Every structure is written in structure tokens, then in C-alpha cells.
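Reading a protein record of the kind used here takes only a little practice. The record below shows the convention in full.

——
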Amino acid sequence: MTIQPIDPLVLREQFPALRRTINGQPAVFLDGPGGTQAPERVIEAMTGYLRSGSSNHGGPFQTSRETDAATDAAREAMRDMLNANRAEEIVFGQNMTSLTFSISRAIAQEWQPGDEIVLTRIDHDGNVSPWLRAAEDRGVTVRRLDFRPENCTLAIDTLPGLLNEKTRLVAVNYASNAVGTINDVAKVVEMAHAVGALVYVDAVHYAPHDVIDVQALDCDFLACSVYKFFGPHTGVLYGKYEHLDRLNAYKVRPADNKPPGKWETGTQSFESLSGVTAAIDYLASLGGQDGTRRERIVRGMKALKQYETTLSERFLQAATRVPGIRVYGITDPEELERRTPTFAVSLAGFTPEQVATYLGDRGFFVWHGHYYAVEVMARLGLLESGGLVRIGFTHYNTYEELDRLIDVLIELAATAQ
């Protein structure tokens, strides 16, 4: 497979938001883990849907037929993005958290008191609280898969000790939204399936950074959010058709009783679904013009990851020049394949809020706190002290932006008392 390197300076021209300035300085969007910016094609697709006349789906008239077509196109696009077996395995919703609460309630109907589930301490709470509530409702025991604080890697070698014939589900993230660790989900799936358990994967943070292949993973469910990979605020749930068909959905009575309709409660944001297709077509455009959309997506994501790895390497090397900085998670340059370009850091003498505010005033957008990775911050002993600062690079960030960030952090560190 030939991977054509991406040029972020050329690609940035497609993102109107990247032209913003703050206090006379170019804005630097390092908040991607909380939501990425959208290219022009996504904006045009969404406004184009609304401009031409919107309608609900299922009607015998033109605007409704166009809504049906937009929905079908988005489902096929997400099928290509995730390599699902069929379009009916793609469910849309408001966001990953809402979809997870919905599906957890349905899955839990098959649990009995005394059953067990496994959750991790490295997950976003969107893949924790829905299962905690479901377990509480059904009298199910919750077991915890820990991570190693020294490098924030999941202790997968301890998973066999948590699994048994009573295990009904393992919930795990593909990559940590807090510290960037990429987990060996395929191994988790293999272990869980060996005892007959389902696997629910939170791929929200992983999806913007690498290729997803649900058939190769053999996971039972996988959720992601399109606004994390350059699209609108829409959540996506993949589920094996056999599960989506078998499980009982909580829905209004006249609704479709077959997947995916049975899982899509209420009216969807059809303008957003138009943006979903455009976002995936943007990713495919990074992979050139030849081949199927899936093939172009794979090439595009590999090119994107290749560039982002250089950003990670450059950041880790440059961060050593910042007095008092600590980077959490994987920092070994030889192991960058095991992390995304998302870095949780602390700076001696400053609270995370102080660091984020100082950077924000100078045009650098970063998050501080726990970012809903409550278990991560609690395990690191940082939840009560304000968490960490999260710096998230993506493919539209440049070396020049990174170098400016380091200069500003050095400037701030010099003011420490």
C-alpha cells in the first residue's frame, strides 16, 4: 500500500475556523480530543441540506425522499469508515453517551443477579456510568481492569483473572481520551469471547487517529462520535446485526422493529447526517483518488497517523526543554504506535486551570480537568487537585504551532515562584 504524505499547510486551507485570531495571534486548536474543527465540505453539506428544504423521513414527496437518501448515504459512509458487514449495523444518535445508555439498558435485560461485567479504570465515563447503572438495576457484580500508573497502559495481562463463566460484558476504550494510550482491543475481544462475554468498545478518541475495522476486531459493539473526526455532533453505534436484531429496544410503539430503525429514537439531525458523509469523504480524500472509498479511507488514515506520529515525537522531545513539566502516559519514542498524539501534562507551580488559562489568553486552546475520564484521574490521585492539562494534536496542527506552544510553556514556567 502506497501512502502519500499529507501536507498540513495545504489541508488547513479547507478549515475556515483555523483562520481565527486571538488577541492578535493565530488561534492554535489543540482541543481536538474534545472536538475537532470541520472542513468546508462538511459545512456546505449541512447548510446545503437545510437550504434546499428539509423534511422528516419516510414521506412520499421530494424533500422527504432527499432526507431518506441523505440518511442512507451517511449509513453507507459509516459502514465504509468502520468496515461493517452491512449498513443496517450502523445506528445514529445524539452522541456516544446517549447511545451507550440506550444500548446498555437493552443489553442488561438479559442479565441476572450474580452475573458479572468488567469495566476499566482508563475509560471515559461514557463507557463506565451507563454500565454501572445497568449493573445496579440488575444486581450484577462489577469488576475493574486496572492500568499501570507509571505509563498509563492497560493491564491486559490481568484480564483473565477477572473473566469467568459469569462474565456477560467487557467495556473498554480503543484509546484513552485522557492520556492517549491505545489499547489492544483485539486481545480483549478474544479473551472475552472465550468465556462467552460481549465486548463494547468506545472508539470515540481512537477514530480520528487510525483505521477501524470492526470485522477484524470481531467486537460486538463499537461507538464513536463524528465531531471528533472533523464532522458534526452526531453519535454512531456499530453493533453486530444479530445483537441489534435480538435485543429489545426501548422505543415508541409505531417505530421500526428492525435494525437500525428500532434503535434510532425520535427524529435524527438530518443536516448532521449530511455532514457525516462529507466528513468521511474528507478522510477518504487524504488517501488519493484510486480504489473504493474504504480503501481510500484506510490509506488516508494511515497517512494521517504517520504525520501525527511525527508530531508526538517532536512534542515529547521539545517538552524536555520545559522546566517542571511532567507528561503522563507513554513517553518512549519507540512505543509511539501505542498512543495517540494526545498528552496529559502538569506544570510544577501551577494548577491545570492556570496553565490552560495562560495558554488560552495567548491563543492556544487546551482543556484542563478530568475530561470525564474520572476513573483515570482518581487512579492517578489527581481528581481532587484539578486533574491535568490536555494537549491534543491532530493532522491540521503544524510543527510551527507546536514549537510556539513549547515557547509559551517555557515562558510560563519561568514565572513560577
In short: The longest helix spans residues 293-319. Residues 31 and 168 are 36 Å apart (CA to CA). The mean pLDDT is 97. The radius of gyration is 21 Å.
